[in-house]
Design goal:
Radius of gyration: 24 Å
Shape: globular
Helix content: 25-40%
CATH architecture of the largest domain: 3-Layer(aba) Sandwich
Largest sheet: 7 strands, mixed
CATH topology of the largest domain: Rossmann fold
Number of helices: 13
Number of domains: 2
Distance between the termini: 74 Å
Strand content: 15-25%
Strand order of the largest sheet: 1-2-4-3-5-6-9
Low-confidence stretches: 1-15, 353-364
CATH class of the largest domain: Alpha Beta
Oligomer: single chain
Length: 455
């Protein structure tokens, strides 16, 4: 029997329309390619074409799938205000990568480049169509290379340059950190330190064919033949190293894998970004081989990097879990941890990628309960459990990552116990009101909790 669908049902089967950006960036960054001047929109607190002798710190925030440089810039402004860094010494820039729907809606001229909806996120070349011909094509990663070089060359006292992005922007930043060569020029010519901060990306670039073993969080192997047969492109770019685009192919696989651990990449993960049915979560088979949802994928990727490079990788590639925040760009970058990564200083304690996963899934034999009461005025009780094995420590850190108090050290037998913290430091002084980090560690396993002291 032939079933005839109504108009509403037919429309429901169609993909959701791609919407144009709400506003085009207020400024334009110009590049000359093959004799043609091309423009990239951006928002920021300073012009990319001007010289600034007072700027010492610059942050570039790549927008997410909404491509809104205005929203990204407003997020940077809020974070800078929290950090006390919205001043003459700080440059804030949010570039905008347009798609053809933006070109059509705003009737933009041929000097504005555009990409496919997914292409700009992974460094693909810009497009030229019959409806919107363009005189030249450029990778979105090459555009960012040019922006970063311009920032470095026009700010002679610049010391640190941070490149950050959330969600789709996080995907962009993580892959850019692996494949870009501009950092070497910035360091050698200008002496600038470059830091990358991908937050809550939906997937990651893996460096070999191994993926997490099903049912584990820290074991890796090449997937079984049956899995590879069902997902033959799982190791193709953007998920793996095969079939990389032109920009990413400028370096060999060996060059990418040898350079990546030298990059300073700080991974931010939202503690609540755990919905396997979240909007815009990549659910392709290649992405699902990286984990079920964004937090899990990020924790697994941290474990993968330790598996691939060794435990020393956490020095240059630390993972931070932002408490109480889900898939929220502004929430991530205006959190204590997010502000710290964008503008320096403390703010959160880096975690071994497996610790939060172990705590949440019950796969660890360590346990650290939230202290009671929390918040507290004069004293709080901390419950913990350790297994027989190596020595364990229970310590308290401030939000800058500085050790405040060692509560227990050296206990190594199976133990379920409690200890009272009286709000004093190792020197016996009362600590000021604020947020502190409880850390229980045994070998490579580590659990953290936060406790707040009131006045």
């Amino acid at each position: 029997m032939i079933r005839v669908l109504g108009i509403a049902a037919c429309l429901a089967l169609l993909p959701a329309p791609v919407l144009s950006v709400p506003v085009i960036g207020a400024n334009s960054f110009s590049m000359t390619v093959s004799g043609h001047v091309l423009l990239i929109p951006y928002d920021g607190n300073k012009s990319l074409s001007s010289l600034y002798t007072l700027v010492e710190h610059a942050v570039v925030l790549v927008p997410g799938s909404n491509r809104s440089s205005n929203f990204a810039y407003e997020t940077l402004l809020e974070a800078a205000n929290i950090a006390g860094a919205n001043d003459a010494a700080t440059m804030l820039i949010a570039p905008q990568f347009l798609i053809e729907e933006d070109i059509d809606f705003y009737q933009l001229p041929a000097d504005r480049l555009f990409w496919s909806e997914g292409g700009w996120k992974q460094g693909n070349a810009s497009l030229s169509t019959t409806a919107n011909p363009r005189p030249a094509s450029l990778s979105s990663f090459a555009v960012l290379d040019s922006i970063l070089y311009r920032i470095a060359s026009r700010n002679p006292n610049l010391q640190t340059l941070v490149v950050a992005g959330h969600s789709a922007g996080g995907q962009f930043v993580q892959r850019f950190a692996a494949g870009s060569s501009i950092e070497a020029a910035l360091e050698s010519q200008f002496g600038i330190d470059v830091v990358y901060v991908p937050a809550n990306p939906s997937s990651y670039l893996y460096l070999d064919a191994e993926r997490v073993v099903s049912g584990t969080l820290d074991q890796f192997a090449v997937p079984p033949a049956s899995v590879v047969g069902a997902c033959p492109g799982y190791d193709d770019y953007k998920y793996g190293m095969h079939s990389r685009n032109s920009y990413m192919s400028r370096l060999t696989s060996a060059q990418i894998t040898s350079r990546y651990p030298q990059r300073h990449v700080r991974y931010l993960l939202g503690e609540l970004d755990t919905d396997p049915a979240a909007a815009e979560l990549d659910t392709s088979c290649a992405a699902m081989l990286q984990g079920r949802q964004r937090l899990e994928r990020g924790l697994i990727y941290g474990n993968y990097l330790e598996h691939f490079y060794g435990s020393g990788i956490i020095v240059t590639h630390p993972t931070f879990v932002v408490p109480g925040v889900g898939h929220d760009s502004r929430g991530m970058f205006t959190s204590v941890c997010g502000v710290a990564q964008l503008f320096g200083g403390g703010g959160c304690v880096a975690v071994d990628a497996g610790e939060e996963a172990s705590r949440d899934t019950g796969m660890s034999s360590l346990a650290l309960q939230e202290s009671q009461p929390n918040p507290f005025h004069t004293r709080t009780t901390i419950l913990y459990r350790v297994r027989s094995g190596g020595p364990s420590t229970l310590c308290i850190y401030d939000v800058r990552g500085q050790l405040v108090r060692t509560l227990c050290e050296g206990f190594g037998q199976e133990e379920l116990g409690s200890i009272v913290w009286d709000g004093r430091s190792n020197t016996g002084q009362q600590v000021p009101a604020g947020v502190y980090i409880l850390r229980l560690q045994q070998g490579r396993e580590r659990l953290t909790r936060r406790v707040t002291r009131l006045r």
